[in-house]
Predict the structure.
Amino acid sequence: MINNEYSARRTSYGVMMRFLVIPLYLALGACGAAPSVDIPTRAATAGQTTLPAMRVFPAPRPIPPARSNHDIQRDFLDLAFNLESGRALPVFSRFEGPITIRVTGAPPPTLGPDLNRLIGRLRTEAGINIRRVSGSDANITVQAVTRAQIQKYLPKAACFVVPNISHLSEYRGARRRGAASWSQLKTRKKLAVFLPNDASPQEARDCLHEELAQALGPLNDLYRLPDSVFNDDNVHTVLTGFDMLILRAFYAPELRSGMTRDQVAARLPAILTRLNPAGDRLSPIYPSATPRAWTEAIQTALGPGAGQRQRLAAARDAVRIAKAQGWQDHRRAFSHFAYGRILRVSSPENAYQQFTTAEYFYRRTPGTDLHRAYSASQLAATAITQGDGQKALAFLNPHLATAERHENAALLANLMLLKAEALDMTGRPGDAHAARLDSLGWARYGFGAEWALRAKQRELTVIGAPNASNG
């Protein structure tokens, strides 16, 4: 998201987590910089004439939140009554009554099924009365347009949501009139979500989850949340059990649009006791607020526009601030993870130490299984460069199911391709070949269209040969 009067998913940084396993480490016998490609694989799949079908995830299995209701109450209030810029919202706002949603523009084939799946979850898990319609009179319009069209209006956005309009062409006029201001909104009646139709299926789905969730509920992001899409680290890309609890509370009958923060706060304890009784039996943690300086350091380190020196300095600052705050949670871990990501070209050994430190803090923080899967991908890649396939498999195997449960096809494809490398190293070429083939089905969803995958296969043929003789 971007700090402004609209909700948007930031480009480059916003989709950064999809591309963490760049095959920097996978040019295993090569000297110099590895080719810049998104899907690590080897020549073994390059001869394929028919790609496997796109894989789809089974029924959702969200993990319930495992935090005290005291902490969740604070989270709810900070999410509902602030914009990410820090600006306070004067009143609580939501839709009142049944909600309808339609799709316009030129949606990709995967958008309809993904939307239907999300609507089903919103109805059953969040208890929201929402349904899809085909007519022009809908509360929420999802318009699928090109990335270039979105960035014509918001250059740093991958997707965004705006109140009181239903078409992208209406945005500038609404903004001039003040109609696009969330802080002026008392009750939500009409909103538009703008998604890219030329991105990968997963990126479009990720945008759909985040922007539709904010069309319905909170507009803020909080880095202190380890298990939520309402967090600018973008580790979680589909709505979590915590997110559904927040949305269910948002539409609790005890609340209504126009309430003040104090009025909502007075009703929240009873609402959360009813919706999440297990949370009353857990002790609160009271995590500290996240300083703006740390947020800015992370955004500089991982976002677009900064040079390598700036990124390194910003990553060091993030680690320094995290230590000064005394953090022992996922924010401390993410600081080291970001620093390791910046160091991995110039100083692989130091990068590995940062990833190891990140894993240490993630392991101590509940609700960070998905974070650990990303750390595992980096640690496994290093093990592969060292020729230790068994060690790489030990890093990878516990996290394949995690990536699948959290419906992250891009991460799952990367983990499987790393596993294939490790299997080759341990003398199991048949299993390695099967892992590569299976990964392509997930890669089709996670990384894009067939033509893009075939282009990547042609690129990867170049680096496949050195890999085959490594070890």
In short: The longest helix spans residues 429-447.
